[in-house]
Structure formats: structure tokens, C-alpha cells
Specification:
There is one protein chain. 52% of the residues are buried. This protein has 32 helices and 23 strands. It folds into four domains: 215 residues, Cytochrome Bc1 Complex, Chain A, domain 1 (2-Layer Sandwich); 189 residues, Cytochrome Bc1 Complex, Chain A, domain 1; 216 residues, 2-Layer Sandwich (Cytochrome Bc1 Complex, Chain A, domain 1); 184 residues, Metalloenzyme, LuxS/M16 peptidase-like (Cytochrome Bc1 Complex, Chain A, domain 1).
């Protein structure tokens, strides 16, 4: 399916704004309005007054497709460089951290974007627009900055080199394209990353980072008139460039003249197959049926590849996907085997399923199922302003943002004949790139269509009508609490329901069941996990495929998350389908099928996952840290199993164990339900009562405490040969609950150490100053019921930098404990923390899960208000004293995982 999907919106018609001089209003489609500046700069407004958030997204239409010889990875390197500084902003990351909310940048084949998501207010919108204008026109690019950021990007490159799936995909893509830059990974080439001259970087910036090659998207709740004026005062003052850019790259990939084959040999992982076939650009009419075909082939459990390989036990996983590109792309399929699977039968079955559609044509039912699944993604994205503000740029990168609307309608119009036609045209041996070589006497070559003229399509396109708006909701703890209705079902199940009008009538619903006791849960940890994972694999009245089809028909998203003594079902759905979705989830929780075939599939999938993770540094390092912090015996629910344990458990798991646990322990008397969104409280309560009000477990629930346990400081190394990237972890358990007086100071201390947006001391030292790590920081875990907090640290890095990473972390920790933090640091951190919390209150998913926890621990949103009040009064002295009280740097445990045998130990 498409990597990024945007949906139609229902907003009011474009307002009759007073356009500042030099700004003209262009196209308006379903509430999205484009403006054009005299210098060629494009602006797209996506207003949503019901949203408490704003997304500001600068998209520059340059990606890896535009890179020249010696510049591979330059577009991505720029994404990093533009988080450094400009003439006006001395530290962009610090500025973004103070804004709060989320910020990031991404690079693809056809575009680079920079975006911020934050609570709606005029000052922050103004600041974000000013920042993006500076990025576009006034970035400072120096050799000193390049030296530190180049090593960070190289570290990200090395991290990707540890992932067999990613490496294989890159190698196959490279073999599929002889000349076109789509064959070159966006992350770039190591030598180009390391050796790019500053003068080349500056020339690239001056060529592509210009107003006639960029678009600003503002979505959410904002004053359009004020925003337009700020844009005129910032972007409008950037001169129109004298140079001109060609509308397209002119390199066209020649017709493939036979099967291509590559082999990748590396240490670790499990056997994989990757196969790619050339297909048209996303603007071509054929791309929509290709996307549907990809879904028919590769989406489990109904996908043909899944049935042919996973159900037959020839592989553990099988999937297909397409990439929506400006120029001709590929359809890609990936198959993952377990270590014991024979590659030959899997390869033969895969190619037979992909290239023999003429013998087994796609059916109308398969086509409609795939279309339903694809269109479901449009509707789910519809309800999220931040997705809209970011994802619309993917369509703009195809040539015009209105391509989204054309593509949506093309999916609706796809027929079964279309799907079979494109399968015949593109899925054939002469158009294939695979990890093997097969000579062919008579090549059957495929001509891939060229680019499509957009103007006729855009002129003839008639936009569809949108949907209604949600209400303007004050996202504050007091208002959330005032609107929340708390009650209980007859059996004691607690409800916390917040009804409000939302865009698209979206509802977030979470159902949590608590179960077991210290006596009944001993030795049941693995069974508990497998039971939860079986719940979405069919019910007594529906097969796994039918259950998934039912969810898709409701446009509902369902995730079931296991816990040591709980299972949580998290649902996203629209109001008209809410009751049916609750029926479906209740059936999954109360009457699962426990199909033996599905257990076997899950068993193989689990083994493959564990085998693949056994030599991945980050996975291994995080596991060792978990085992350090959880020194429980093997039969305890909180025991942290090794990968070998997981494999053994998968092999030994019995269906009778799972069924018995469900009968004895599952019930709703110790459960909670939370919902936020557009629903009738009485109707939902009645539905929940009918399903769960009398459902009780034979065995009572008794929470198993997880008290603080001191652990002796350890410094552990796990050697993983032939890995370009390594993992560093640090951990210290602390006797703290989130209701303790020291919790808020410790929360702030963690933010200052490395929990903010790249502004903490650890992050600044390891990433910004020394350029050793792509990702480094700290985080604090804490419980509302047990005094079992932990302060954690992490970093990824090149193995030869192991000593520098560990020494740098220790030194920053020791400085903070010894000397504390300054009031200036605190002021900056508090600004980001407060903005981040404000954004959380506007996130319905976060509010739902908070209400769920509050129902369990007997709290209200007054708790969050108290946290906010304490943040207003906190001092640097309080933060420093709390850190010194609980943190002894010598008591930390450290873990390093990677190719470290020849690395000098840290001092």
C-alpha cells in the first residue's frame, strides 16, 4: 500500500482573507487552500478550529533523486544540518525544545521536510514560521558544524547496516535501477557522507533551498489572517532566485532486459527474500490498481503470499508494499524464514504466487477487500490534524498536492479487471530483481509508462464533499475532568467516559482486564503473552481473516497489548461504527477461537522474531538492561526472558494451557474502560454493561507488587561480531513512586539530562558536541503503585567509540550530581516540559490511556493539575537536590552490545 496516505477533509470554504501585497490565492479543494507568493513560494492552509494543536511543515522539493555524483546522502545530511543554526537562531534544537510538542525532519527520494507539532497559540505559530523561513534562506553551513553532524549521520548509516531486512532491500533496489537515483539509498554512501566538501554543500543549499522549490503547510487551529501576514513578512522577503530548475530529473531507467540477482552475506539474522518489479510513477493511472494488487498479495492474513508461505510453514512472514514516487518506482515483496526453513521451496512458492496470476486471477472479493483496507487508511488519517499537516507534502512531491484527491478517487474506481491487467503487465520474470540468477532465452521486456501530464486531470477533477467539524475543546486537566463521567458496571468494572464532538466523529476506546494473583500467575508469564496474541486471530464465530475483514469494514483500528497481569484492547473508530466495534472486541476478549493453525503460525513468527533479534545490538542491549532491572525467578510474571528463553517457550507452548488460563482468569470485574470522542455516554454504558457487566473470572484478581530492588552495579559487554553499530545502556533503580514529593524534581532532572528534544546534557555532549551518536539521551520510568522507578540512559554509536560514549555519559552524570543545574537551564527545560504536557492534553489517545490508568489507581485529572502547579513553583535547587538524593553515579549499571572485542575498555 502507499507509504503515506492522506484523506479528504471537511472544512469550510476558503476564507476571504485580506492578501498581503504579492500574495495570490490559488486552488481550493475541500477546505485546503493554496496561496502563492511573488517569489514562487507556495503556502497551503489546512484550518481546523476544533483542534487544539498546530502543525507547521516546511517541505523542500529535493531528495535523494536530485543528488549528483559525490553527493549521495546530501539531501539527508541537509536535514541534519538544518537543525543546527541560522543567522537568527543560534541553536535550533534548543528553540524547538522550548516550543514543546514534537519536531522532526525526514528525507525521502523526492522531498525533505521539517515540521513542528505544538499547542495552538499565535506566538508559537509565528515563531515556527519565522524559524522555517530562516531554515530556507539563512542557514549557516560551516566546516565545524559539518564535522560533528557528518559523524552523527554516519552513525545512523551504521545503525541501518545492522538490519538485514533494510540492507537486503537497499541492495535489491540498487540492482533494480541501473542509472536512476531511486536505486541509491536516501541515507547515502559512506564515503560521500564522510568526504563531502563544504563548498558542495553550500552550492546544493543555494540551488534547491529557494522559495520557488518549497511549500509551507500550516494545519490545525490558527488565525489564518495573522499567519498569512507572518508568511508575507518572512518568506515573502526572500528574493526570487535567478537560476531555474528543470521540472523533472531527466534520467530515465531503461527497460529491464532480464532477471537480476544479488546475494547478501552477513553475520546474524534469519534467511530473507526480497523481490522487486518496476511499476509506473504514482501519478500514472496504473499505480492505483498496482497498489490494490500489492495489498491482495501481501497483507496478512488474507494476502496470497501469506497463505502460500506462512500457512504452509515455508516462511514466518510475507508482505508486499509499494512506494508512491514522483517517477517510476517498484512493487516490493519481503519474505522472512526461520533458521530451519529450506530456502528453495520458499523461493519457488513466492515466485509462483507472484508471477502466475494468469493461472489464478485476482477475484472481485479480493479486490474489494483490498480497496476497503486502503480506503480505511484514508479515513483513519482524516481524524488527525498532525498527519494531515505532514502527509499532504507526500502528494505535493508528486507534482501537485491535489494528486491526493485524484489518487483517492482512483482507488475507489479500481476494478478486478484493472488489477489482473497490471499483474500481467508488471509481475513477470523479465521485470524482476531477486537474490538469484536465472538465465532466460527469450526476454519478455516491460515498457513502463512515462510521466503523466497533470494539467488535464486537475482541470477535470471535481472535489468531493467533506465531513463535519468537531467542537472547540479546551484541552486542560480541569476541563477534561469536568467533562469526564466516571461510573462502574454491576461487577465493579470502572468506566471513565469523556464525550465530545470530534472531527470525523472519531472515538478512542481502551478496555483493560486485570487478572490473576501471586498464586495463580506463577509459571504463567509466557502463556499470558500467547493468550493475548491469540485474541486477534479469530473468534468462535469468525476466522482470523473474517475478524480482520470485519474490522476493516468498520474502518476500525484495534491493538491488543499484553501485560504481566492484564490485557488491554485499544480501539480507534468513528461514532457510527462504535457499537459494532465494541461487539467485535468483546467477542475477541470473551470468545476467542484458539485455532491450532493460528497457534502454529504465531509460534513460527515468534521464533523468527527472536532469532532475528539475537545478534542485533540494540535489541540485545535493551534486553540485558531489562534483565538487570528485573531480578525475578524464571516462573515469576516479571521475569525478563532471554531470546533463547523466548524460542524455547514458543516451541513448548500448548493450546490447552492457553485455553485453561482464559477460562480461569479472564473476566471484567477488575477491569477498566476509558473512552474519549464522539459517542453517547448512555448508549456506550449500556453496550459495555451488556458485554462485561456480569462477566467475572472464577479466580479473583490480586495485584502482584513490584517493589524497589537494589542491584549491584555492573559493567557488562556482549560481543556481537560484524556489526557496524553498537548499543550503550545505563540503568539505576530508585525507590520512588509518581505520587512522591521527589517525583516532579526527578522528572525535570531527567529532562535536563537527556529527556528533551536533543537539548539535555547527555544528548548535547554525545551528539551535538562530539558527534558520536545519532540517538542518545535519558528517560525516567516510574509507577503509580510501586516504588520501582529507574533512571535510564542510552546511545547508539560506532564500536570504536565505546570508550568515549561511556566516559561522556559518566562525566555528564557526575557533573550534574556534583554541581546541579542552573536557573537558566531550568527555565528553558520548563518551557519545553509545559508545552509538551499541553500537547499531551490535546492528544485524545494519551487522554484515553491516562483515564484508563486513573480508573485503575483511583485518581482523577486533578493529579495532572497538581503536577502542573508544582512545575510552576519548582526551583533549580529542588531539582539538583532530588538528583543528588537518589542518584549515585557509581551505582549505575552499564551495558554495551556490539563488535567490541578489540575495543579498548573505558577508563
Amino acid at each position: 500500500m502507499l507509504i503515506s496516505v492522506l484523506v479528504s477533509l471537511s472544512f469550510a470554504a476558503a476564507p476571504n482573507l485580506v492578501k498581503p501585497k504579492g500574495i495570490t490565492q490559488e486552488a481550493t479543494v475541500e477546505g485546503l487552500t493554496e496561496y502563492r507568493l511573488a517569489n514562487g513560494f507556495k503556502v497551503l492552509f489546512v484550518p481546523d478550529p476544533s483542534s487544539p494543536q498546530v502543525t507547521v511543515n516546511l517541505t523542500v522539493f529535493v531528495g535523494s533523486r536530485h543528488e549528483d555524483y559525490g553527493e549521495k546522502g546530501m539531501a539527508h545530511l541537509f536535514e541534519h544540518m538544518l537543525f543546527k543554526k541560522t543567522k537568527k537562531f543560534a541553536d535550533i534544537k534548543k528553540t524547538l525544545s522550548e516550543m514543546g510538542g514534537d519536531a522532526n525532519g525526514t528525507t525521502s527520494n523526492d522531498r525533505t521536510n521539517y515540521f513542528e507539532i505544538f499547542s495552538a497559540n499565535d506566538d508559537t505559530v509565528k515563531g515556527a514560521i519565522e524559524l522555517e523561513a530562516e531554515r530556507l534562506a539563512s542557514a549557516i553551513i560551516s566546516r565545524d558544524q559539518l564535522v560533528t553532524e557528518m559523524t552523527v549521520v554516519r552513525n545512523e548509516f551504521e545503525s541501518g547496516e545492522n538490519r538485514p531486512n533494510r540492507v537486503l532491500s537497499q541492495r535489491v533496489t540498487s540492482a533494480a535501477y541501473l542509472w536512476h537515483n531511486y536505486g541509491r539509498a536516501t541515507i547515502g554512501n559512506r564515503s560521500d557522507i564522510e568526504a563531502v566538501p563544504t563548498v558542495r554543500l553550500q552550492a546544493f543549499y543555494e540551488k534547491y533551498y529557494q522559495p520557488d522549490n518549497a511549500m509551507l503547510i500550516v494545519s490545525g487551529k490558527f488565525d489564518e489572517q495573522k499567519a498569512l501576514q507572518v508568511i508575507a513578512n518572512t518568506f515573502g522577503k526572500i528574493p526570487k532566485p535567478k537560476r531555474s530548475l528543470p521540472p523533472q530529473t531527466y534520467t530515465v531507467e531503461p527497460v529491464q532486459d532480464g532477471e537480476r540477482s544479488i546475494t547478501v552475506r552477513r553475520v546474524g539474522g534469519t534467511p530473507l527474500f526480497n523481490v522487486q518489479y518496476h511499476v509506473p510513477a504514482a501519478t500514472d493511472p496504473d499505480f492505483a490498481p498496482v497498489d490494490v494488487l500489492s495489498n491482495v498479495l501481501g497483507v496478512p492474513p488474507s494476502g496470497r503470499l501469506y497463505r502460500a508461505l506462512v500457512d504452509s510453514k515455508k516462511s514466518a512472514k510475507a508482505e508486499c508494499f509499494t512506494s508512491a514516487l514522483n517517477e517510476a518506482g517498484t512493487i516490493e515483496c519481503m519474505v522472512e524464514l526461520t533458521a530451519k526453513d529450506a530456502p528453495g521451496p520458499a523461493r519457488e512458492a513466492m515466485l509462483a504466487e507472484l508471477e502466475n496470476v494468469s493461472k489464478k486471477p485476482v477475484t472481485a472479493a479480493e479486490t474489494e477487500r483490498a480497496k476497503t483496507q486502503l480506503l480505511k487508511q484514508f479515513e483513519l488519517t482524516l481524524n488527525s490534524p498532525d498527519r494531515i499537516g505532514i502527509d499532504i507534502s507526500e502528494y505535493a512531491a508528486l507534482g501537485d498536492w491535489r494528486m491526493f484527491f485524484i489518487y483517492r478517487d482512483r482507488i475507489k474506481a479500481v476494478t478486478v479487471d484493472d488489477v489482473n491487467r497490471v499483474a500481467q503487465r508488471y509481475l513477470k520474470a523479465s521485470n524482476r530483481t531477486l537474490g538469484e540468477y536465472v538465465p532466460t532465452e527469450k526476454p519478455d521486456r516491460t515498457e513502463v509508462p512515462g510521466l503523466v501530464e497533470l494539467a488535464p486531470m486537475l482541470k477535470a477533477y471535481k472535489p468531493a464533499e467533506g465531513i463535519a467539524q468537531g467542537e472547540v475543546f479546551a484541552a486542560t486537566p480541569s476541563n477534561i475532568e469536568a467533562r469526564t463521567i466516571r461510573s462502574a458496571l454491576p461487577n465493579g468494572m470502572a468506566l471513565a467516559l469523556l464525550s465530545k464532538k470530534t472531527r470525523g466523529e472519531k472515538v478512542e476506546l481502551a478496555i483493560k482486564l486485570g487478572f490473576g494473583s501471586p498464586k495463580t500467575m506463577m509459571g504463567q508469564r509466557a502463556t499470558t503473552l500467547y493468550l493475548a496474541r491469540m485474541l486477534q486471530r479469530g473468534t468462535k464465530t469468525k476466522t482470523r481473516e473474517q475478524f480482520k475483514d470485519a474490522l476493516d469494514a468498520l474502518n476500525a483500528s484495534l491493538r491488543i497489548a499484553p501485560g504481566a497481569q492484564s490485557v488491554t484492547a485499544i480501539i480507534e473508530v468513528r461514532r457510527p461504527q462504535l457499537m459494532a466495534a465494541v461487539d467485535l472486541v468483546a467477542e475477541a476478549l470473551k470468545a476467542p477461537a484458539f485455532d491450532p493453525k493460528e497457534l502454529e503460525s504465531l509460534r513460527r513468527e515468534s521464533i523468527a522474531e527472536a532469532e532475528a533479534a539475537k545478534d542485533e545490538p540494540s535489541a540485545v542491549g535493551r534486553l540485558v538492561v531489562r534483565r538487570l532491572l528485573n531480578p525475578y525467578p524464571k516462573d515469576h510474571p516479571y521475569f525478563a526472558p532471554s531470546f533463547d528463553d523466548l524460542i524455547a517457550e514458543a516451541k513448548e507452548m500448548k493450546l490447552d494451557q492457553i485455553k485453561a488460563l482464559h477460562v480461569q482468569l479472564y473476566g471484567a470485574q477488575s477491569g477498566q474502560v476509558a473512552a474519549v470522542g464522539d459517542f453517547d455516554t448512555g448508549e456506550l454504558t449500556a453496550k459495555l454493561t451488556a458485554h462485561f457487566g456480569s462477566w467475572t473470572a472464577p479466580q479473583p484478581y490480586e495485584r502482584i507488587a513490584r517493589p524497589y530492588q537494589a542491584i549491584a552495579a555492573k559493567n557488562l559487554t556482549v560481543d556481537l561480531p560484524d556489526k557496524a553499530n553498537a548499543y550503550f545502556g545505563a540503568a539505576l533503580p530508585m525507590p520512588v513512586k509518581d505520587g512522591d514529593s521527589d517525583y516532579v524534581p526527578l522528572m525535570v532532572a531527567d529532562y535536563l539530562l537527556g529527556g528533551g528534544f536533543m537539548a539535555g546534557r547527555v544528548t548535547q555532549r554525545l551528539r551535538e558536541k562530539e558527534g558520536l551518536s545519532y540517538g542518545a539521551g535519558t528517560f525516567l520510568t516510574v509507577s503509580p503503585l510501586d516504588d520501582s522507578a529507574a533512571l535510564m540512559g542510552y546511545a547508539i554509536y560506532a564500536p570504536q567509540n565505546a570508550g568515549k560514549i561511556e566516559n561522556g555519559f559518566k562525566e555528564e552524570l557526575e557533573k550534574a550530581v556534583a554541581s546541579g543545574f542552573t536557573e537558566a537551564e531550568l527555565k528553558s527545560a520548563l518551557q519545553g516540559l509545559k508545552q509538551g504536557r499541553s500537547s499531551s492534553y490535546a492528544d485524545d489517545g494519551w487522554v484515553t490511556m491516562s483515564l484508563l490508568e486513573q480508573a485503575e489507581v483511583k485518581r482523577t485529572f486533578t493529579y495532572e493539575s497538581n503536577i502542573d502547579s508544582r512545575l510552576e513553583k519548582i526551583s533549580a535547587t529542588q531539582v539538583s537536590e532530588a538528583l543528588k538524593k537518589y542518584v549515585d553515579p557509581k551505582s549505575f549499571s552499564y551495558v554495551k552490545a556490539g563488535d567490541l572485542k578489540k575495543i579498548e575498555a573505558p577508563r
